[in-house]
Structure formats: C-alpha cells, structure tokens
Amino acid sequence: MTALLPLIALLGLAAVVAGIAAPVRLRPVLTAIGIVAESTVALVPAVRVLGGGQPVTFTTTQVLPMTGVTFRLDALGAVFVAVTAVVAIAAAVYLVGYAGHLHGGRMSWGAVGGFVTGMLLVPAAASVATFLVLWELMAISSLLLVLSDHRRSAEARSAAQWYAVMTQGGAAVILLGLVLLASHSGGQDFASIAAHAGRISPALRSTAFLLTLAGFASKAGVVPLHVWLPRAHPEAPSPVSALMSAAMVNLGVYGILRVGDTLLGGGPAW
Description:
mainly alpha; two-stranded antiparallel sheet
C-alpha cells in the first residue's frame, strides 16, 4: 500500500511527459489514460483508509534536497483524495472529446497532468517542504491552463493576472505561516509541528493560523478573497474549470482544517 503513493507521482509524470512529447493525435488519449490511471491508484489507499485502515506513509530522501519527501495519508486527507480522484477521472474522459478546444499546445497538455497530480498528492503531504512543492505544482499548472487561450483572448490574460496575484500571494502567506510553526517545533514535518503545538505561545499560534487561513481562503474562493474565481473559471478550458470548481477549491478548505485542527489541535473560541 505504501508503494502506491510514489506510483501516483510516477503515473502523473507519465501523463505530463505524454502531454508534452506525444504526437498531437495521441496527446489527448495518452494524457487521459495517465490521469485515469493515477486517479484510480489514488482511490485505493484513500478508500482503504476511509474504511478504517491505518494511515499510509512514505518517506524518501532521494527527491527534494536537504528535506526529502514525506507523505502520510490519513482519514482527513483521504476524503479529499477520493473526491479529487473521482472528479479527475470524469474530467479526463471528457478531455478526450474536448481536445480540439484545448489551446496552448504542449504546455497545456503537460499542465493538465501536473495539475491533477498536484491535487491528488497535496492531501497526503506530511511536511512543510513536500506540501509547498505540491501546492505550487497545483497552482502554477492551473495558471498555465487559465492562460491557454491568452493569444486569442484579452479576457484570458486579465483573468490569469488576477489569478496569479491571488494564488501566489496566498502561497506566500501560507509559506510564512508554516515556517513560523516549523521554526518553533524542532522540525518541518507535520508530526513534529503537531507534537510541539501546545508549547508554542498563543500569539504565535494565532498569527500562524491567521496567515494560513488567509492563504487557504483565497484558494477556496472565500469572500472577499474570491475575486479571481469568477474571472478565471470561465477562461479555463471546460474540463479544467470542472477540476478547479469541484476539486481545487476544496483543497483550500483542506488546508484550513489541516493547520487548524491537525497541526494546532484547535484553538481559542474565536
């Protein structure tokens, strides 16, 4: 079961490579096959954990320098992985027939695979570095997809600018909040942060929570940080818009729950 987490990443990489390197006629089918395969694989540990199984973990020092990669899929993450996987499978099937309307060439097809892979793995990330790398993969690939029609549409360029500002601003405050917690926890893995959360001063806990709340709320489209959403969604390709609406914005809610409940263990009544 542990091996399924890196397998998701490998299948996602295969989908990205297929989108970039495959012949034009084969790109839609090969990209869709890669997305369906990685989503199906992701459903297996998610369903098992939700059915009462033990959390699935995986750690390696061979990918990210200095920090390594740490995954731990628990019940909270499994809910969001399962929802994302089901939506991604449906969107991938639709993508095959939609292929003629997806502009941007190799960039867009590669970005679709990266977007889905990021969303599937974000809920399993169990360290600050792993989480932020996958969060940025999701954010940058979705930005490229919003930009896919930028040569034809001024609205697409404007929407992408709004989206870039909000998503990168959100990522910056999430980074700051998580680094604050990690710097007072003796380590950047989520288990260490959760273990030391009770010893962090209330002022620092509240500051870190408010920073991450703002960042994740912008991704979830919470008022008044929703200004990118009605601009970006109509400009994104239809299957990508579905992924953004039914999967990506959910991960903003996931981030709030992960930090507020799992890492900080709750807080003051406010």
